[in-house]
Amino acid sequence: EPQRTAFLLRKQWTLYSVTPLYRFSPARLRDYASLLSAFIAAEKQKGLAVEVGVELDIKVAVSSLPDLKGSDQDQAGILVQLSLRSQASKKNSEEKMVWSGWFCCVFGDDLSKNVPEDFTCLPLFLANGAESYTSIVGSWFQKTFDCRFRRLAISPLSLSWMAAMWTGCKVDKTTSAMELVFSVPSLPYPLDISYAIHPEDAKALWDTVQKTPGEITQEEVDVFMDCLYSHFHRHFKIHLSATKLVKVSTAIASAHCDGIIKFLQSQYLTGVLMLLTELAISQIQ
Amino acid sequence: HLATSLPLPSERDHLRPRIDLIVFMIDIKSKYSLKNIEASLAHVDASFFLGKVCFLVTGVGRMNCCSVEMNAIWKLGEVYGSPVLFCELELEGIRVATAQRLLRMLQICAGHVPGVSALSFGSLMRNSADD
């Protein structure tokens, strides 16, 4: 099972929220692949695809990701992959994957229970590859299923929550440092502060803060972050609480406020997706 | 008069005119501003909390830059029995409207509006909370 989703790890995914898809059928994935392929070819004719130079053939594959769901009510994940087949080497017919995007819904009951029969809820979309392809694929889905894609931004509050949550996760081997990146506002030049914390120290701190294992409260997240901020202030006389938290990196995953995520541990993939699904649903509602 | 925190320096106490209204500004993008306000509130005399204090939350136009939890702000308004106003400083229309509102509140607090006192703010708040 972890093998099937291994290709999702260690890649940078750009996040989008997607409104429910009208009359989407998981049984018609092959048809959708053909339709999307034709759409992309047509767009290229119009000169809208940006790849300049060699005349290349784009192959579209749409498949199901049955492991990517939370509860039984969730719709299984859907994966779209675009590969380039170079016409020059038709003999080898080498295919190079240039773009992939997947829809998923992990514990999205809050959304799916309120939506009429004809709609499919897949509120979270993750894309890796050129923005021009994301744009074309997004346009096709929006036109075909009357849905709307929006970049999913992650607020500093949500990032703090992730920092606390992921610090508490148990990881087997020696892990990388926990890193928090802050952007300092109101300066004539851009300034970022990177704060790296030894993962064992971070976990030890979180363990003293968290009262009930398996449960996290906003208060506990605040205390955890305040401790980190005070420690930093003691050494550098800078109030990190006056800056904007823009990125959190732990051994589990890394997340950026512009809505970019990287999954690093397959055992926690569902957990992170559950949190992202929640954020996507908030943005839709 | 603007101050970055309270208490105000005591050297100028004798030169200072009467204070009719205190507006605490919280930037929703800065957790530090909330902590600063919480520390400053401790230095305010209890009599001010009968309508002469209000909280002004700025930066609300961009909820994606939120570093302060809304619950914390509502709680502050509740605990200190004072109104919470929201303003996006970058938008001129809202900035002007908020300034006019504060000016009106100040006129009432300074006793310039006959028949209306600062105490009315407290009862106005409680009614809408019950709704």
TrEMBL record, chain A:
Keyword Mitochondrion applies: no
Subcellular location: Chromosome, Centromere; Nucleus
UniProt-listed InterPro entries: CENP-L
Pfam families reported for this sequence: CENP-L
Superkingdom assignment: Eukaryota
GO CC terms of this entry: chromosome, centromeric region; nucleus
Keyword Nucleus: yes
Keyword terms of this UniProt record: Centromere, Chromosome, Nucleus
Membership in a protein family: Belongs to the CENP-L/IML3 family.
PANTHER family: CENTROMERE PROTEIN L
Protein name: Centromere protein L
UniProtKB/TrEMBL annotation, chain B:
Main location group: nucleus
Pfam family, one: CENP-M
Keywords: Centromere, Chromosome, Nucleus
The protein's name: Centromere protein M
One GO CC term on file: nucleus
Location relative to the cell: Chromosome, Centromere; Nucleus
Keyword Nucleus: yes
Species, as recorded: Antrostomus carolinensis
InterPro entries: Centromere_Cenp-M, P-loop_NTPase
